[in-house]
Specification:
The protein is α+β, with helices and mostly antiparallel strands. Helix content is about 15%, strand content about 30%. The protein has one domain.
Amino acid sequence: MKDCIGYGLANKRYPVNVVCENDFVCCVLDHEPFNEEHTLILPKLAF
């Protein structure tokens, strides 16, 4: 699970623009959004 792109984005293994973050989720701006200001909400924990 730790090789998942979403996990890497949420845990900042790749460059991201963070909008909001806490211990459980990380909200980042989409790299190529369909609509302006499209935000991805990603879990930080891998199960």
